[in-house]
Structure formats: C-alpha cells, structure tokens
Design goal:
mainly alpha; three-stranded antiparallel beta sheet
C-alpha cells in the first residue's frame, strides 16, 4: 500500500511538473509574440520614415539632373556654333593655301621646262661634235689599216730573210737551230753560274766583315753600358767574438753545443788559435749563412745550450728565407722585368747563395739580363723579352742540389710549370746549345751569357769542381734508405750522416757506413781520405701541464 501511494504521489508530482512547464512555456511564448509585434510596428515606422526621406532625396537629385542636362544642352549648342565658325575659317585658309601651292607648282614647272630646253640644246650640240669626231676616227682607221697592211708585208719579208739567214748559219756552223739554241743557253748558264758564285763569295765576305765589325761594336757597347761588379764567394765565413772565453761556451760541456750546431746546420765550426774569431766552413752558402746568423744571435743573447741553439737555427732559417725573397724582388726591380711568377722570384733569390765557377749566379743573371737588353736594343728586338730570358736563363741552378738533371732541363721544366713565355723557355733551353737556337732572343742570351762569363777572373774551374765533389758526396749519402740529413764538412774530408733511429739500428749503422765508403771509393776521385761519420740520435719529447 505504501508503495502504491508513493507511486501515485510520484505520478501526481510528475503531472504537476509537466503542467507547470507547459504553463511556463505558454506564458513565455505569449510574451515573445507581444514583443515581436511591438518590434515589427516600430521597425515599420522607421522604414516608412527612411522611405519618405529617400523619396525626397531622389526627387531633389532628379531635379538637379534635369538642370545639368539643360546646361549640357546649352553648352553643346554653343560648341556647335563655335565648331561651325572654325570650320568655315579652316576652309577659307585651305583654299588660300591651295591657291598658293598651285602658283608655286606652276612656277616650278615653267622653270623645269626652261631647264629641259637648255639641256636638249646642249645634247644636240654634243651629238653634232661626236658625229664630227666619228668621221675623223673613221678616216684615221682607214689610214691605220693601210699601215698595218704595209707592216704585214714587211714582216713577211723579214721572216723570209730570217729563214734564209738561219739556213745559212746552219750550213756554216753545221748545227741545227735547236742545237745552236741549246749550245748558247748552256754557255750562258755556265757563265751565269760562275758570275753568281763570285758575287755570292764577295757578298759573304762583305757581310762577314760588316757583321764582325758590328758584333764587336755591339758587344763593346753592351759591356760599357753594363758595369756589374764581379762577386766571388769564399767557402768560409768568420764570426767575431767579444772575447776568447766565448769559445768555451760555444763548445759547451763535452762539446754538446758545437755538436748540436754542426748537426742542425751542416756547417763545420773551426775553433783554433785565431783570437776572438770562429771560422764557419761549408760549400753551401745558404747553410753557412744560417749558421752565421744563428751563431751571432747566440753570442748576443748569451744563453748557449742545445734547446736555445735549435730555436736560433729555426729563426735564422726563416730570416734567410725572407732574405731570399727580398733578393729575388731586388733582381726583378734592378732589371725592370715585371709579371714574373712568385715561385720564380723565390728561385731567383736562392741564386744569391749559389756560385758557378766562383761567380755569383744571381749577379751573373742580372748582368746577362742587362747585356741582353742592350744587345736587343741595338738589334731592334724586344728588349723586355730579352731581359726576361737573360734573367731566367740559369734559374735551374737554384734546384740542382734537389732535382736530378742539368740546370738547363730543370730551368725549362720549372718555367713551363710556371707558364713562362715560350721564347724565354727556348732561350733557356738553347743557351748551352742543348738545342739549336731558333730565335734572335735565344742567340742574344747565348752571347750575353758568354760575355758575362768570359771576363778575366770571372770564373774558376777548380772551385766549381770542388763544389761538385761536395754535392756528389751528399748525393751518394742521400740515396740510402733511412738517411735523414747529410752534410759534407771539413772541405769534403768528412761527411756527416744523420740517420733515422727507427729505420737504422746500431748494428746496421756499421754496414751502411761501409757501403757509403765503398760507393765513394768506386764513384769519386779525391785527394787523401774521406771520413764517413754516421750519427744516430733518439729523442723523446713530452710536456708538463
């Protein structure tokens, strides 16, 4: 029962709730309809007001448009009247212009007719003159035909006489016409050959005398204009010391300082009784210059020990390289040769420390360039190209100790690599007659090279042989595997060879030294004996951080 009552109560409550919701919905809808009706009436009133104002504005614009149309019609009528007036004026002006042009045309036609009449009169006169000349020419042609006829008769008579004479000559000489002709031509040919040979000999003699005289003149003039100093480099350098005590410091404990310096530079330090002086001996001037600069700086610094020696030697090498570049640039400026490859400039600078028969090669090259320029100017050849070829003709000597082959072939290869002028390369190749000279530049450089080398005391064969012997010593040692550096010292009486410790051990050093000594005995001629000194040194470097 209670459950039924509860269900009934719940149903009644649900019905009441639905009725309340429906009542609320109906009330809201009525309220919304009333509000909608009010809004419609309000908007209708606003629309009627807007429509009234729009109609008023439209009427005003229509009236304004009508006024403008009337104004436009009045302006159009005025424009039409003005256009009609201008049209009439233009017609009057056109008629006047046409009348004027017609008058000018008629006048020009009259003038042309008068000119044509004059021309016709002149042509008629010329025709009459030509007729007269034609008549005269016809008369002359008739006379000429008569003369030609007479000339033909005379020619026939001369031919008959000539034939009779030839027959008489053939009967007397017992030769036919062709045989006589051949005989005369042969005789003439022999006479001409002899006369031509005599003239050729005379001309050759004259040219030879003139050429020798001009050559002597050109060479003497070139030598007079080029007065270069002759520089002869010795194989030793002397370094001054502040006192004799410095000798002991340079030698170092157990000779370690002097041994380090000699090993790093490849130069022999001679410390004898000469007061306050040390002699550096080496055939290679670059090594000797590096050793001299390093030793002078060590003396000035006062700190002389192996580590400091290594630093000074490295600085000296950089300084010498800079000096080599400066010397190359000086040679370029002195000879006024421009556009040279930077690599060739460096090689030119290296020639400052190279001698050939005791003649400084850079000075010799500058001298040859100047002589070549003077000779080229005298002969009317390109002066700049001749100077360039003269300056570079011995460029290969800067690399003879590093590259196999003659200095001529090395120079040709280097210049080709640097894209040098073809005529310059040919002059380098031909200056010792390795190839036949084909250009005037090559002949000039060859002559200038001979002039520079042929002056008294310019060269010495003994010194050159000495240099070649030392270079040969070093070349033999470098050919062995494991050799790091080698230096010929003591004027070639000793060869110091630094070997790589990881390649050549202590036992193998004996064998290598014996092989080097044996090869020197087999391939070289030398006075006395040569000491082969192999040096093997191991180092371990570490850094404390």
């Amino acid at each position: 029962m209670h459950n039924m009552e509860e269900i009934i109560i719940i149903i009644l409550l649900a019905v009441l709730l639905v009725a309340a919701v429906a009542a609320i919905f109906i009330v809201r809808r009525m309220t919304a309809e009333q509000a909608f009706q009010k809004g419609i009436e309000h908007r209708k009133q606003e629309a009627e007001a807007v429509l009234g104002s729009a109609e008023q504005e439209a009427r005003e614009k229509i009236a304004e448009a009508e006024r403008r149309i009337k104004d436009a019609q009045r302006m159009l009528e005025d424009a039409s009247k003005k256009a009609e007036t201008k049209k009439k004026e233009a017609l009057v002006e056109a008629k006047d212009e046409i009348h004027k042009l017609r008058s000018d045309a008629e006048k020009e036609i009259r003038d042309r007719r008068s000119e044509v009449t004059k021309q016709e009169r002149r042509i008629h006169q010329k025709e009459e003159t030509l007729d007269k000349k034609l008549d005269a020419l016809e008369q002359k042609e008739e006379a000429l035909q008569e003369k030609l006829k007479a000339a033909d008769e005379l020619k026939e008579e001369a031919e008959s006489l000539k034939k009779v004479q030839f027959e008489t000559l053939e009967r007397i000489s017992e030769l036919t016409r062709e045989q006589a002709k051949e005989y005369i031509l042969q005789t003439l040919e022999e006479e001409l050959v002899h006369e031509k040979a005599m003239k050729i000999v005379a001309f050759e003699q004259q040219i030879k005398e003139d050429s020798e005289e001009k050559a002597r003149s050109y060479i003497s003039l070139a030598i007079a204009k080029c007065a270069a100093d002759q520089v002869s480099e010795a194989a030793v350098s002397v370094v001054a010391l502040p006192n004799d005590e410095m000798k002991g410091r340079i030698i170092g404990r157990e000779g370690r300082n002097i041994r380090t310096l000699e090993t790093l530079t490849g130069v022999d330090l001679i410390i004898d009784d000469t007061p306050e002086a040390i002699t550096l001996s080496c055939f290679d001037q670059v090594r000797r210059e590096i050793a001299r600069i390093a030793l002078e700086r060590l003396i000035a610094d006062g700190r002389i020990h192996p580590t400091r020696i290594e630093e000074m030697v490295e600085k000296a090498k950089r300084e010498v390289e800079h000096k080599i570049k400066q010397e190359g640039e000086r040679a370029i400026l002195e000879t006024n040769v421009h556009g040279v490859n930077p690599e060739l400039i460096k090689l030119l600078g290296r020639l400052r420390f190279r001698t050939s028969y005791r003649q400084n090669v850079l000075t010799h090259s500058i001298e040859v360039a100047q002589l070549s320029g003077v000779l080229a100017a005298e002969l009317g050849v390109d002066v700049n190209l001749a100077k360039r070829a003269g300056l570079l003709h011995d460029i290969g000597k800067a690399l003879t100790s590093e590259v196999e082959g003659s200095h001529v072939q090395i120079g040709v290869d280097v210049c080709r690599k640097c894209r040098e002028n073809a005529e310059v390369i040919h002059a380098i190749e031909a200056h010792h007659n390795d190839v036949e000279p084909r250009t005037a530049i090559a002949c000039i450089v060859q002559a200038a090279d001979a002039i520079s080398a042929a002056r008294p005391a310019a060269r010495s064969e003994n010194y050159e042989s000495y240099i070649k012997r030392l270079e040969k010593l070093e070349e033999i040692c470098k050919s062995y595997k494991g050799v790091e550096k080698c230096y010929a010292v003591q004027a070639g009486r000793e060869i110091r060879v630094m070997v790589q410790p990881e390649v050549i051990n202590d036992e193998k050093m004996v064998l290598v030294a014996r092989q080097i000594a044996q090869q020197i005995e087999d391939e070289m001629d030398y006075p006395g004996q040569i000491k082969v000194n192999l040096i093997r040194e191991s180092r371990q470097v570490d850094y404390a951080k």
